Amino acid sequence: MRNTNAQCVPFAATLALAALLTGSLAHAQNYPARPIQVIVPFAGGSASDVVTRILLEHAAKTIGQPFIIDNRPGAGGNTGTQAAAHVTPDGYTLVATGSGSAAINKILYRDLGYDPQKDFEPISLVGIFPIVVVASAQLPVKSLADLIAYAKPRPGELNYGSVGIGSSQHLSGVYFGQITGTKLTHVPYRNIAQYAPDLISGAVPLGFQWLPNVQATLDSGGARALAVAARTRMAALPNVPTAAEAGLPNYESSGWFVMLAPHGMPKPIVARVNKELTAALSDPAVRQRITEQGAEPVIMTPEQVGAFMGAETAKWRDIISKAKIPQIQ
Fold first, then answer.
1. Stretch 306-318: mean pLDDT, rounded?
2. What is each CA distance from 197 to 191, 207, 290, 296, in whole angstroms?
3. Are 99 and 151 within one domain?
4. Are 29 and 103 spatial neighbours (Cβ–Cβ below 8 Å)?
5. CA separation for the pair 71, 124 (Å, rounded)
């Protein structure tokens, strides 16, 4: 009897697994049967919010259900991202979060309440915002080489603004200083709109910014774009060289946004959502609208997204460690 029972255990487990897989497959085949909530852990009208809405507006038409945006800003994106980490992984709650809350904050914060790589299933990139190196028109520099030559003999004298400690704009300035041997002073702003007047006046003459934050200032002539920290030029700034073209190879930095699902969401549903977002990112009209927002559409598989997040976490861990930036409580 003991042997018979022992043989029944793996058979019963096999039946249970088969039932589970059958149920998951049926669920995936019927997906989605109702609207899909997407938590955006940033304020409505922010660059991430706008790009996410552009993408999901198209995807809703093909997936057959609306995507309902739920803005939950707070703690650099951590608040909304943490909320998404602990919901039922049935495909009806996703999160479109950023490079901070999906990678960098794991290093900067003592306790996020979630692990970006363990608690989520990567689905797709939403958009990448390349960093644009900008200088006030009041500063006597017209190129990246001019800036480096001007900054080196003036350690600590040049300020640059960002949306806060640990933001991609802050860390891009830190990274720039590390690879150029310059020392810049970081000035965090609670509201990035406060930065533009200081950039124009020369009070805070530098920025490592997303294009939407400085587009108006560039258009008015109050500042000039010196380089884009990306491998290729931006569609929105075709006449601005990449950092490599401007004489600074390997300086690549960006903010990015990614669609994630709670860990355990069935793989067929992950694949379905990725398929619809890829189709949206491939649409010329969608791509144009995204580039008009200063972002770059990039298509990746879920596996590539996971690898990308891991590589970004490792990159910024080294930069933050070298800069000895203290952890946030």
1. 97
2. 12, 12, 26, 27
3. no
4. no
5. 19
Q: Can you give the residue range of the structural domain that contains 211?
A: 132-228
Residue 280 located in a structural domain: yes
Which of 129, 118, 164, 113 minimizes the C-alpha distance to 258? 129
> Hey, what amino acid is at 214?
V
Q: What are phi and psi of 34, to 5 degrees?
A: -155, 170
- Residue 41, domain CATH: 3.40.190.150
Indicate whether 28 belongs to any domain: no
Identify the helix (H) or strand (E) that includes residue 36.
Answer: strand 36-40
Query: What interhelical angle do 284-292 and 47-63 show, nearest 10?
Result: 170
Q: Sorting pLDDT into bands at 50, 70 and 90, what band is 1?
A: very low
Residues 147 and 214 in one domain: yes
Residues 240, 234: contact at Cβ < 8 Å? yes
178, 209, 228 — which closes off a domain? Answer: 228
Is 11's pLDDT higher than 80?
A: no
Q: What share of the chain is helix, strand, coil (3-state, %, to 5)?
A: 45, 20, 35
Statement to judge: residues 41 and 95 lie in one domain: yes
pLDDT exceeds 80 at position 313 = yes
